[in-house]
């Protein structure tokens, strides 16, 4: 987004962990041989007694975190989302969620903008995997400050939490002084013509698109769903009842992500609206520069704007 500083939201994660450990020695940070990429090397350097590197052993990572939680610690286990949500799913399901243990999981390098790492690392299925698990909370912060606040909220929450982070630097849209409540979405732009719902780093692109559309006479309401589970159904329902139109922009596979969660919830609420979605359409991606991939798969400012305008082809504003 033009005019905003950019920083990778994973640095907000490690900033929060440094502050938490300074106040609570029970916070333990675990990593799986990716501490530089996840930024948890900062914890290792300053609080080495509160840091454990388990090596390239993601199932062990979650198992050790569970053991620490059983002994009264508050573990934050970090590695790439493709590994923690994928390789360690059984341990997350059976050891952490079944026992409702106080384990926090950080899935790094999610989504399209992992770019050159290719389809093995472009994790676009993690929301679906985590959302289906009983007791699991899912947070998807939009920038470094929201990542900081999400990490503090995860610390305060008693039970399993999964937080998504991205690799690339993204525009800073929020402040650390902003209120962050698990389960409460935020209307970040008021409008009456259409509700656009998104989450994570794509919020900046959606807001750019909304700004461009305003110049053409469209009044866009934008909602930042930083908590994907539990979902703020009240906020979403009230907005869609007002506008009658809903576009979800979801940096995830089209099945099982934010879009699925919102459509399910509004169906149960018996809300009637015209709907659309931008998501990855049931395909693995290709390697490439992150900006080019966002454009190729429909997440550019222009693509979002055209999708919004398609709602009004046979209607007047």
Description:
The chain is α/β, with parallel strands linked by helices and 317 residues long. The protein folds into 2 domains: 166 residues, Thiamin diphosphate (ThDP)-binding fold, Pyr/PP domains (Rossmann fold), CATH 3.40.50; 125 residues, Rossmann fold. The protein has 13 helices and 14 strands. The strands form 3 sheets. It has a 7-stranded mixed sheet, with helices on both faces. β10, α9 and β11 form a beta-alpha-beta unit. α1 crosses α8, α4 packs parallel to α6 and α9 crosses α13. The two termini are 26 Å apart.
Provide a quick synopsis of the model.
The chain has 317 residues and is α/β, with parallel strands linked by helices.
CATH fold-level name of the largest domain: Rossmann fold
Categorize the overall geometry. Answer: globular
For the record, what is the CATH homologous superfamily label of the largest domain? Thiamin diphosphate (ThDP)-binding fold, Pyr/PP domains
CATH architecture of the largest domain: 3-Layer(aba) Sandwich
Which CATH top level class of the largest domain fits?
Alpha Beta
Could you say how many structural domains there are in total?
2
Descriptors:
single chain, 317 residues, alpha/beta, Rossmann fold, 2 domains, 7-stranded mixed sheet, 13 helices, 21% strand
